[in-house]
């Protein structure tokens, strides 16, 4: 012990000198951390407790059971085939600390999928090429469209033999409890590992193989490449490094894996690791995953806490009959106020993209608490905006994903509605309708450049339209939304319309709207205030480095998709809609929720505030009555909007001067120059329209039951008189 204390003293002195000179060696810090941890556990072992392997009961998991591999030395394997257990709080996310986790609790993932484990912590015996290096061996990582590029879908060994290994350096002592594996993500190849051994080390030189008695423990792994398989260790094991040694693999493929490691951090005596790498939150919110029943109960709790500013309602039902609940947050819930814009956030159109659902549940809690505490920013937002939050568009899909749990739901389980439809891309394709009208020179005389009507076939009962989509369309038509965002997952980027390319044969092509500059600003307002989206040094989630584009991209530039919610909203209503991909991990472990909340909280608020950018006003007649359905046209922008039922309107615009023209049936055209400033707060621009001469003549004729005589009728009467 004396030599260890001497080393510690020398190390601390060296560290102080480094700090005084302005330099810090990470390797030295990690070494000091390991020494301190080892000394702690050496003391524990001297008191009679063996530090490695850790003893205790087998941890419970939210996975499903499957058959074990053959032989007495095989370990049980768990994959997607049975309902999971109820949600359990292993570590409460809001605590933000390194709480000790009991042996019977779940351990969270280390963070290969969420990128908390960086590329330098992943190593391998060999690799086929750089695009299949160990840095690509992350659970659920997606490969590109083309093989053998820099962004392939997994780690693949350079040789197919039992000497290959994949290694993770946790950079601290961990209590490892299990391993989750997948095969390689590829459209063209089939590669996966069917069994493996697990080795552990504290120094990366001396390795110990997990054993079943005296024999090496061999874990059964994957039988195909996409479904994740969890193997839970018989007993948790304490170490810093963990290796996976493939023993068998698909005969027609090779050694390829995507991996997640389950483990709990051991006590951190000098609080080093948390100080450098963890994000904590001070918000007292319910950081956990919520079932449908728990979601409904939480919304009810928020409503009871803030009854004067909230209202719960539903927009319809899912295929399985679950109500699609929304919560309204406003100073006068339940009614549209003249001049107050309507904003919406939606989430969960893909049921397995769970993070957006939880962020909206956290947002409604946060806004209620902050409003009650007198937060001026939140009070101003609530008093001046009618906000709608719809956290779960696809509750049926969510139930499928949640049964498997955060690590075993894979990339696509629960994505679609119960009847197999992608809700986000299930809207009518109005792009092709508008573009065809433009090609025939019908716009604007015969065909409007806005409020494009929904085709009759789409509204028929036998059309292939999800009931959830029909509910959304009805909701979007009923409320005059100005701005909206739909939260999705699996990436870190904000996309804006159009989502479909003009050319059917082109998969990726920039296809801007007439309001492209406005959309780019709206997208940047979210991305730039997100903690990670525009971070230049952050690792790409899968294949695209969106940080180079300021964390934003035109939807069609990424991949073309017809009938998106964003395009429909822009072309059929006044609402500008964008998609926020809020995290690389679609279904993060609940211990990740506090950090994800911190990543997105400011962005969620800033984007809501953008609804007050541009111009607003009321269009009235000379008697002061609001004119509904009046067309608001901005010179130079080939996309108009319309007034709401009370005659009020909101037009999102970037700072500048604009000539605005207003026209309505039966009224003369009016125009004026409106100025938009740089400060948040829409500029007021009201209009008063007088009756047109033609409309006055029609009114007089109708009043006295006299019909106007057409020119042709007059000519006929003259001819009769002449004869």
UniProtKB/TrEMBL annotation:
Keyword match Acyltransferase? no
Q: Which residues form the F5/8 type C domain?
A: 105-264
Q: Where in the cell is it found?
A: Secreted
Q: Where is this region: Disordered?
A: 44-103
A single GO BP annotation from the record? proteolysis
GO cellular component terms, alphabetically, are: extracellular region
Checking SUPFAM superfamilies in the record gives: Carboxypeptidase regulatory domain-like, Galactose-binding domain-like, Zn-dependent exopeptidases
- Segments spanning the bilayer are none
Q: InterPro entries, per this entry?
A: CarboxyPept-like_regulatory (IPR008969), CARBOXYPEPT_ZN_1 (IPR057246), FA58C (IPR000421), Galactose-bd-like_sf (IPR008979), Peptidase_M14 (IPR000834), Peptidase_M14_domain (IPR050753)
Q: What GO MF terms are annotated?
A: metallocarboxypeptidase activity; zinc ion binding
Give the domain of life: Eukaryota
Is the keyword Protease assigned to this protein? no
Which residues belong to the signal peptide in this entry?
1-22
Cited Pfam families: CarboxypepD_reg (PF13620), F5_F8_type_C (PF00754), Peptidase_M14 (PF00246)
Annotated keywords: Disulfide bond, Glycoprotein, Secreted, Signal
Instruction: Describe the location of the Peptidase M14 domain by residue ranges.
Output: 288-611
Write out the function statement from the record: May be involved in cell-cell interactions.
Family indicated by similarity:
Belongs to the peptidase M14 family.
State the protein's name. Inactive carboxypeptidase-like protein X2
**Species annotation:** Carassius auratus
């Amino acid at each position: 012990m004396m030599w260890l204390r001497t080393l510690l003293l020398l190390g601390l002195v060296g560290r102080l000198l480094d700090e005084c000179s302005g330099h810090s060696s990470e390797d030295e810090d990690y070494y000091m951390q390991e020494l301190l941890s080892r000394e702690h556990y050496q003391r524990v072992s001297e008191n009679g407790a063996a530090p490695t392997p850790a003893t205790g009961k087998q941890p419970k998991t939210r996975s499903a059971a499957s058959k074990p591999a053959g032989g007495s030395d095989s370990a049980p394997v768990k994959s997607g085939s049975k309902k999971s257990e109820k949600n359990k709080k292993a570590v409460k996310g809001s605590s933000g600390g390194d709480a000790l986790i009991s042996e019977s609790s779940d351990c969270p993932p280390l963070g290969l999928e969420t990128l908390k484990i960086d590329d330098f912590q992943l190593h391998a015996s060999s690799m086929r090429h750089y695009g299949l290096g160990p840095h690509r061996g992350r659970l659920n990582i997606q490969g590109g469209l083309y093989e053998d590029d820099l962004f392939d879908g997994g780690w693949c060994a350079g040789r197919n033999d039992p000497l290959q290994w994949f290694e993770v350096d946790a950079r601290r002592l961990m209590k490892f409890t299990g391993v989750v594996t997948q095969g390689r993500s590829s459209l063209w190849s089939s590669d996966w590992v069917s069994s493996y051994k697990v080795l552990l080390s504290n120094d990366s030189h001396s390795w110990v193989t997990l054993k079943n008695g005296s024999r090496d423990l061999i874990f059964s792994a994957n039988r195909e490449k996409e479904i994740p398989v969890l193997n839970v260790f018989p007993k948790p094991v304490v170490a810093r490094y963990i290796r996976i040694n493939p023993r068998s693999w698909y005969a027609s493929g090779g050694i390829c894996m995507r991996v997640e490691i389950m483990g709990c951090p051991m006590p951190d005596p000098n609080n080093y690791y948390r100080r450098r790498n963890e994000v904590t939150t001070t918000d007292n919110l319910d950081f956990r995953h919520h079932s449908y029943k728990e979601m409904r109960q939480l919304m009810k709790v928020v409503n009871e806490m803030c009854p004067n500013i909230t209202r719960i309602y539903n927009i319809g039902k899912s295929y399985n009959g679950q109500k699609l609940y929304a919560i309204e947050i406003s100073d006068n819930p339940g009614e549209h106020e003249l001049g107050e814009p309507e904003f919406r956030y939606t989430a969960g159109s893909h049921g397995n993209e769970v993070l957006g659902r939880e962020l909206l549940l956290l947002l409604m809690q946060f806004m209620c608490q902050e409003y009650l505490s007198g937060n001026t920013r939140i009070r101003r937002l609530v008093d001046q905006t009618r906000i709608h939050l719809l956290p779960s568009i696809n509750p049926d899909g969510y139930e499928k994903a949640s049964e498997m749990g955060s690590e075993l739901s894979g990339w696509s389980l629960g994505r679609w509605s119960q009847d197999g439809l992608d809700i986000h891309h299930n809207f009518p394709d109005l792009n092709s309708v508008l573009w065809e009208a433009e090609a025939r020179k019908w716009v604007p005389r015969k065909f409007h450049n806005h409020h494009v009507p929904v085709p009759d076939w789409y509204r028929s009962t036998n059309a292939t339209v999800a009931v959830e989509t029909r509910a959304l369309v009805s909701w979007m038509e009923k409320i005059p939304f100005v701005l909206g965002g739909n939260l999705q997952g699996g990436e870190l980027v904000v996309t804006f319309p159009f989502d479909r390319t003009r050319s059917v044969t082109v998969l990726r092509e920039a296809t801007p709207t007439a309001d492209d500059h406005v959309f780019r600003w709206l997208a940047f307002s979210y991305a730039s205030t997100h903690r990670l989206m525009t971070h230049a040094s952050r690792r790409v989630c899968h294949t695209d480095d969106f940080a180079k584009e300021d964390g934003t991209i035109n939807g069609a530039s990424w991949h073309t998709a017809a009938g998106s919610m964003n395009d429909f909203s822009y072309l059929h209503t006044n609402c500008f809609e964008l998609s926020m991909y809020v995290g690389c991990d679609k279904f993060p472990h609940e211990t990740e929720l506090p950090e994800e909340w911190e990543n997105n909280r400011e962005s969620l608020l800033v984007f809501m505030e953008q609804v007050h950018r541009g111009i607003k006003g009321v269009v009235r007649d000379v008697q002061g009555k609001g004119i509904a359905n009046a067309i608001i046209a901005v010179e130079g922008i080939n996309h108009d909007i319309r007034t709401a039922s009370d005659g009020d309107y909101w037009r999102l615009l970037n700072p500048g001067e604009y000539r605005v023209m207003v026209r309505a049936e039966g009224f003369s055209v009016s125009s004026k120059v409106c100025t938009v400033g740089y400060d948040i707060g829409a500029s007021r621009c009201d209009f008063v329209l007088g009756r047109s001469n033609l409309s006055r003549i029609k009114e007089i004729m109708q009043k006295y039951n006299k019909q106007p005589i057409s020119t042709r009728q007059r000519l006929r009467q003259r001819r009769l008189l002449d004869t």
